[in-house]
Design a protein that fits this description.
Layout (H helix, E strand, L loop, with lengths): L17 E6 L4 E7 L2 E8 L13 H6 L2 E6 L17 H15 L4 E7 L2 H10 L7 E6 L11 H7 L4 H8 L2 H16 L4 H20 L5 H9 L1 H9 L2 H5 L4 E7 L7 H9 L3 E7 L5 H4 L1 H8 L4
Parallel strand pairs: 3-4, 3-5, 5-6, 6-7, 7-8
Antiparallel strand pairs: 1-2, 2-4
Helix pairs in contact: 2-3, 4-8
């Protein structure tokens, strides 16, 4: 890191923020707004987690002087989960735009992780006037030769297995077993310290998301059921992604067996101005290596 890099002593573990509720018709989005200079980093989560995957990263970004907005997509975290609500990748793209418009953010840096990759890339394509640059963290968009689908996602994504997954959801113990299996698969290549921290912090976050009522399970089930169709749609938009004339930072945890470094390199092949940064971290690199991720995002590494 350069001499301008952030030191731990400068970081407030819990920076203050303004809280917002943003109406989306079928409920409201919960967002946290941390004061600073622009362009604003707008942090997006995947599934089945929520905005708290950025709790370790945000203090470093704020200490670096940048404005940061984190929000929960409808159906997740502290955003509304109305009975009968419809969730989709198009809805998540709309959630992002609603946050930008409501808070008057102007040009932003969308920061996408996991399943929010489509929202980040498609926002840059559809709303170029609002995007300064793009930051992608272990996420997906279209097809990529080395990409693997996590077992729990594949299970719920296959429509012909719906009777099985519905039965699974009726048994909290069996669903918990599947979650535990998936967590072990995600963490098996991590260092012991990273594994212990992630297993505790992330496990609690995901279990709260699922078990706390109203639950995020309806959003999770609907989103996963649309995954393969979304990948196909985005693959058809690759030429539009290739036309993006903005800087893109690809920040990748090398120990992700699913959205692996091959996926990052595939992104790089299709982007005009992409820089690739590979870290000794897993899928949730913003939890494993927050200081290093922040330094790259802030241009200090």
């Amino acid at each position: 890191m350069s001499s301008r890099s952030i030191t731990i002593e400068k970081v407030n573990a819990a920076p203050t923020c303004a809280e917002h509720r943003i109406d989306r018709g079928q409920g409201s989005i919960y967002a946290r707004d941390y004061a600073g200079n622009g362009p604003t980093f707008v942090l997006m989560h995947g599934f089945p987690d929520n905005m708290h995957i950025y709790d370790h990263l945000i203090p470093y970004l704020v200490a670096g002087g940048r404005r940061v907005v984190a929000f929960d997509f409808l159906g997740f975290g502290n955003s509304d989960k109305q009975a009968g609500a419809s969730y989709s990748f198009a809805q998540q793209l709309g959630d992002l735009h609603a946050v930008v418009e409501h808070l008057g953010l102007g040009k932003i840096v969308p920061v996408a992780h996991d399943a929010s990759g489509p929202a980040g890339v498609n926002y840059a394509i559809d709303y170029p006037e609002h995007v300064d640059s793009l930051c992608l963290l272990n996420c997906a968009y279209g097809t990529a030769a080395t990409k693997r689908t996590p077992e729990i996602i594949a299970l719920f994504a296959h429509s012909d297995l719906q009777s099985l997954t519905q039965e699974l959801l009726r048994s909290p113990e069996q669903f918990q077993w599947v979650l535990d299996f998936q967590m072990r698969k995600f963490t098996e290549n991590l260092e012991d310290g990273q594994k212990q921290h992630l297993s505790g912090f992330l496990r609690s976050l995901i279990e709260d998301n699922i078990k706390k009522q109203p639950s995020s399970i309806p959003a999770f089930v609907q989103m996963t059921s649309q995954l393969f169709e979304e990948v196909a749609r985005n693959t058809k938009r690759i030429t539009q992604m290739e036309a993006l004339d903005i800087p893109v930072k690809l920040i990748w945890g090398e120990n992700d067996a699913y959205l692996n470094t091959g996926v990052a390199k595939d992104f790089q092949l299709h982007l005009k101005h992409a820089s690739l940064h590979i870290l000794p971290a897993g899928h949730w690199l913003q939890i494993d290596s927050p200081e290093q991720v922040a330094a790259i995002m802030l241009g200090q590494a």
